[in-house]
Every structure is written in structure tokens, then in C-alpha cells.
């Protein structure tokens, strides 16, 4: 059987920069699901994130998103990319990257400013609860905000050709 390349493997990762990108929009009956690529590091040019900080970002990000008054009931999934350069966010509905910049900015500000116990970071609640790095998660959130989100432009909202 010949396998077709999936869409995310057709993006030129040699020129991809940090940003918010629509990876795909799928339709299931009357429901659309928009998959966003929240790319925090430049693939193959910057170090990837370690699992501990990604795990912390995942716990804090998912908690923030599911508690959002505007988007909470439309969050399908938030989780890490296998390559450890960013996260995927799946939202019920059709959206552009520009539409969710305020949501993503607020989420990373929440992560940057979060103090206290990480939600769900207990043996009863998580399969690898000790693998957390809140300090590095705050650093990476701040870096993404300052270097990408606060002055985001079209180049960082639409995949490169």
C-alpha cells in the first residue's frame, strides 16, 4: 500500500517560524473542527522543548482553555506535538488563525504568570505527574509572547509556501 503524506508533513519545516497556523479544517457531518499548529520554536533550527516543560504547558493550557467562558465548550483537544516544537489545538467550528490570537495570547500569559500547584499534577490525576517544569514553562511562555504573539503578523499566521 502506498501511503499519502499527511498534510502536516507537506509544510516546509526548513522555513517554518513560530506562530499560530491553521493546520487543517475537517468536517464531520454538520460539525467543523479546526486544527491549529501553535508553533513555539523554529523546527530544525532551535532546540526542541523538553517533556517536563511541555507537560506543564499542557496541564496549564488545557485547564485555561477548558475554563474559557467564550471557547471552553468548543475545545476538542490541546496537546503537544511529537516533535516537541509546539502544540496542537482543536476547536469545534471554522476559525482563522487571526481569530484566536487573543485566546492564545491570554493562555500564554496565564502560563507565564501562573504560581502554585500545577492542576492535575498528582499521582491520582496524571500518569507521569512528577514530569513537570513550571519555571521553564513560564520562561517559554514569556518567550513566545514577546518574540511572536505580541506583534504577530500575517507571516506568522499563514503557513509558508
Structural summary, described in words:
- This protein has 161 residues and is an alpha+beta fold.
- The protein contains 3 helices and 4 strands, in the order ββαββαα.
- It has helices at 51-66, 101-113, 134-149; strands at residues 19-28, 31-39, 75-80, 86-92.
- It has a 4-stranded antiparallel sheet, covered by helices on one side.
- The radius of gyration is 16 Å and the shape is globular.
- The relative contact order is 0.21.
- The model has no long low-confidence stretch (mean pLDDT 97).
The biggest beta sheet reads: 4 strands, antiparallel
Rg: 16 Å
- What general outline do the C-alpha atoms trace? globular
For the record, give the distance between the C-alpha atoms at the N and C termini, rounded to a whole number.
29 Å
Amino acid at each position: 500500500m502506498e501511503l499519502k503524506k499527511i498534510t502536516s508533513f507537506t509544510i516546509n519545516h526548513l522555513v517554518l517560524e513560530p506562530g499560530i497556523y491553521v493546520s487543517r479544517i475537517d468536517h464531520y457531518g454538520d460539525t467543523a473542527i479546526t486544527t491549529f499548529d501553535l508553533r513555539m520554536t523554529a523546527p530544525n533550527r532551535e532546540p526542541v522543548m523538553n517533556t517536563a516543560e511541555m507537560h506543564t504547558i499542557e496541564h496549564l493550557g488545557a485547564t485555561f482553555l477548558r475554563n474559557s467562558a467564550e471557547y471552553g465548550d468548543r475545545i476538542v483537544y490541546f496537546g503537544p506535538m511529537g516533535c516537541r516544537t509546539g502544540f496542537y489545538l482543536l476547536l469545534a467550528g471554522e476559525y482563522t488563525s487571526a481569530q484566536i490570537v487573543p485566546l492564545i495570547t491570554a493562555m500564554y500569559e496565564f502560563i507565564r504568570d501562573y504560581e502554585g500547584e500545577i492542576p492535575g499534577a498528582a499521582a491520582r490525576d496524571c500518569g507521569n505527574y512528577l514530569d513537570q517544569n513550571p519555571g521553564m514553562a513560564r520562561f517559554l511562555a514569556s518567550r513566545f509572547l514577546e518574540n511572536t504573539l505580541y506583534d504577530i503578523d500575517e507571516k506568522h499566521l499563514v503557513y509558508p509556501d
